[in-house]
Amino acid sequence: MKRAHYIHRFGAKAIDLGPFLFFYGDLSFFWLLLAGAYIACADGLFKGQSIGKRIVGLRTLEIIDPVDHKTQACSYLASAIRNSPFVLMLFLGKIPLLNILFWLVGGLFVLVEMYFIYTDEESTRIGDIYAKTQVVEADHY
Hints:
The chain is an alpha+beta fold. It has one domain. The protein contains 6 helices and 3 strands. The chain has a 3-stranded antiparallel beta sheet. The protein starts with 5 loop residues before the first helix and ends with a strand.
């Protein structure tokens, strides 16, 4: 399996989050819930491909047996685990008076995630570690 290049990963995440962040200030409660549900479950769609990953050509795999290198397409549960920090940022960032703090902490978390993706040999981020997932190029799956 060929690991995903960090530029492709950043591009896919930008495609997934972009529309929600663009309209973030105007999101009603319903749209906020819909955005949270999409972000949480996105990597469980299309056999491990969020819309952004599908466009960029990546796939999220859930590691079943690391010794035998057995994988399967990312499940909705693994997707929710790996994307939970982004969902938390989305919701906690809407709390009046505390939103600046949550966006600063969330921004710091995103920078740490980017550092992990850039420096790790397998391009693994913290969410991948907890969810036991790996992002690879879709044509090498």
